[in-house]
Amino acid sequence: MKAEIITIGDELLIGQVTDTNSTWIAQQLNDIGIQMHFKSTVSDNKHSILQALKDAENRSDIIILTGGLGPTKDDITKQTFCEYFNSQLIRNSKVEKWIVAIFSNRKLPIIDANLMQADLPENCEVLWNRSGTAPGMLFESNQKIIASFPGVPFEMKTIFKEEFIPKLLQLKQLPTIIHRTIQTCSIGESFLAKKIEAIELALPSHIKLAYLPAVGLVRLRFSAYGNDADALNAELNEIYNKLNATIGEYIFAEGEKSLAETVGELLIKNNKNIAFAESCTGGFLSHLITSIPGSSQYFKGSIVAYDNAIKMKELNVSENILINHGAVSEACVLTMAQNIRDKFNTDFAIATSGIAGPGGGTNEKPVGTVWIGIASPNGTKAYLFNMGDNRERTILRTALMALDLARKVLLKHD
Fold it and tell me: Are 177 and 30 in contact (CB under 8 A)?
């Protein structure tokens, strides 16, 4: 069962509006066992829409369109459907009454353009829109299902969930697709692939593995296809056990849980708290941890000691350390981590200091050089990294590496 999405609108083609609908729709279809096969974006032009529909029918079983259903002259999707299916627009009295009620309740005048949204292709099944005035439309043609939705995301989502999905499940017997995502950090994609090569080669043909790398992270998405959900889950569980035995130290979560969430859960579980002393990350580490609801249970606060004078004044980094070792040094981050832990009276503390670039590097300490210190009840340690020569990526990688070091230390205290 293959599906594709056609988004309609010049505003999408010129980048004036970001297409978030396709991502959401693809996720919903995957959840019910339908594979996304193709996606296209076309202009508000009858010929472009007709050609997109013709091409889609030749390659896909389910075709989803969004956009072009509004009350203005550039919204031509309904008229184009009439031409495509050799049909005509007729006024739907139920939709008309709904539109009248909406405008009356809001004490707004009703104009012909609003009422024309009740004019729908004669051969379509109406998909009710309780969140707006533009209904969705469902067509069946040559054993293909074609559905059209408003481009406004909250209206599209309402119709899709409440009207389209139930009808689709009635019309089609769908296979089972189960996705299992394993999140890893502190290891590059190629090194990860080498470590799990034997597991990947042993995968049965109905289970696919995709590597989804991002800065500092790699997600492993296993997709299992079949008809028996229990059997597929059992196979995926066995694969996960093999992964855990092989690369367990790099796995921080299953699903879409962030590294900051994982660290927060470990802190709560162990009834511990943490503080940060940030230099090169400039508060980004604090941002990540506080983006998690409930982080006030375990995060005490931070000091962004970007300037050396602040390191000296607020974190008691000695002038001797800065002169003899520099701010980007083992001695500096050890002191920062120890002293922020003492100052804020926390169980754990992390300190970061580095050269994010593009300037400031030397032969001894090139751009990307980063030291991370972590203080715990068992003492303080520092770790040296080179995060590359891109400033933005260096900041993100440093923050993620700091969180992962905290995760590993917390697991030892678990």
Answer: yes
Pick the CATH number of 176-254 from 3.30.70.2860, 3.40.50.2300, 3.40.50.880, 3.40.50.970: 3.30.70.2860
Q: Evaluate whether 171 touches 138 at the Cβ level (below 8 Å).
A: no
CA 234 and chain centroid, separation:
26
d(CA 302, CA 160): 44
CA-atom Rg of the chain in angstroms: 28
Query: pLDDT tens digits, the chain, 414 residues: what are they?
Result: 899 999 999 999 999 999 999 999 999 998 888 889 999 999 999 999 999 999 999 999 999 999 999 888 888 999 999 999 999 999 999 999 999 999 999 999 989 989 999 999 999 999 999 999 999 999 999 899 999 999 999 999 999 999 999 999 988 878 788 999 999 999 999 999 999 999 999 999 999 999 999 999 999 999 999 989 999 999 999 999 999 999 999 999 999 899 999 999 999 999 999 999 999 999 999 999 999 999 999 999 999 999 999 999 999 999 999 999 999 999 999 999 999 999 999 999 999 999 999 999 999 999 999 999 999 999 999 999 999 999 999 999 999 999 999 999 999 864
297 CB neighbour count, 10 Å cutoff: 12
Q: What is the residue extent of each domain of the chain?
A: 2-171, 176-254, 259-413
Q: HSE on the CB side for 133, CA within 13 Å?
A: 21
In the CATH scheme, what is the homologous superfamily, with its name and number, of domain 2-171? MoaB/Mog-like domain (3.40.980.10)
Please list, in sequence order, all residues whose beta carbon lies within 8 angstroms of the beta carbon of residue 244, skipping any fewer than 6 positions away.
251
CB atoms within 10 A of CB 30: 16
Q: What are residue 302's phi and psi, to 5 degrees?
A: -150, 165
Q: What is the DSSP string of 202-245?
A: T--TTEEEEEEEETTEEEEEEEEEES-HHHHHHHHHHHHHHHHH
The CA-atom distances, in angstroms, between 119 and each of 70, 78, 88, 124, 148 are 12, 8, 9, 11, 14
For residue 374 the two structure tokens come to 């972590």
- Domain spanning 259-413, CATH class: alpha beta
The DSSP code sequence of 353-395 is EE--SSS---SSS-TTEEEEEEEETTEEEEEEEE--S-HHHHH
